[in-house]
Amino acid sequence: MRNAPRNPVFAGIDRSDLQEARQICRNIAGEVGGIKLGKEFFTAQGPQGLLEVVGNDIPLFLDLKFHDIPNTVAGAVRSAATFLKPTMLTIHASGGPAMIRAAADASAEFGETRPWILGVTVLTSMDDADLLATGVTDKASDQVRRLAELARENGADGVICSPFEIEQLRADNGPDFKLVVPGIRPAGSDHGDQKRVKTPIEALQSGADYLVIARPIINAPSPAEAARAIVESLS
Ligand code: C5P
């Protein structure tokens, strides 16, 4: 069983190179609450590479955003829980109630070591016009609330949300629903392609449970120092 996160910061190691990812992980593992690995790394290096980077103890956020028929998603959740034992993993809440429920039920089979199931609502890269192009006539903010509620009602542990959705989703879904938040920038850092950001402490004070931070850590001259400064800014 993996350790419990010692602080709320999960560092996203968005790299495809195994040695580079392993080096970054070695440098920052003692500072952050956990490590997030996603499609860029996983598609290049697979489950074996993932375990070479994070081992069996470091808290792991497996961000593969499963979206398929319920039976397949349940199988993917079982495979993840068996072989990778993530602390948390993502599914697309737009996969619907049966798919979310299948993921939650599959996770529950693993008892104490079960991964938290987190729903992705509306990708932050999509605006109202993009949603309309897919046939969704509601505003993105309403669709986020609807999908978060759908996730909760069908047994998900929480959702991924933008810093600006935290307060609404906390009010809608209560104190126990986990809100995991990317789009975080330490004061004074480069925003990259993230348009609407909050600082780590602002996001926590708004009600976030975990923060997902990638470039401000992994692109820093010293990732360990950058991670330490972020964690220190929280207390
Ligand atoms: O580099 P940065 O801190 O912006 O990266 C944030 C991490 O969270 C990346 O791994 C990115 O893929 C992920 N993410 C995001 N926005 C979302 C969902 C996930 O930035 N809406």
- What name does CATH use for the topology? TIM Barrel
Count of individual domains: 1
CATH class label:
Alpha Beta
Helix content: 40-55%
Percent of residues in beta strands? 15-25%
What labels would you give this structure?
single chain, 43% helix, binds cytidine-5'-monophosphate, eight-stranded parallel beta barrel, 235 residues
Task: Explain what the structure shows.
The chain has 235 residues and is an alpha/beta fold. It has one domain (9-233): TIM Barrel. Helix content is 43%, strand content 16%. An eight-stranded parallel beta barrel has the order 1-2-3-4-5-6-7-8, surrounded by seven helices. Helix 1 crosses helix 2, helix 3 runs parallel beside helix 4 and helix 6 (140-153) runs parallel beside helix 7 (166-173). The model has no long low-confidence stretch (mean pLDDT 97). The structure holds cytidine-5'-monophosphate (C5P). Cytidine-5'-monophosphate binds next to strand 8 and helix 9. Cytidine-5'-monophosphate is lined by residues 12, 14, 38, 123-124, 160, 182-183, 192, 194, 212-216.
Please provide a brief summary of the model.
The chain has 10 helices and 8 strands.
Write the layout of secondary structure elements.
Layout: E1 9-12, H1 18-28, E2 34-38, H2 39-54, E3 60-66, H3 70-83, E4 88-92, H4 97-108, E5 116-120, H5 128-133, H6 140-153, E6 158-160, H7 166-173, E7 178-181, H8 200-206, E8 210-213, H9 215-218, H10 223-232
Cytidine-5'-monophosphate binds next to strand 8 and helix 9.
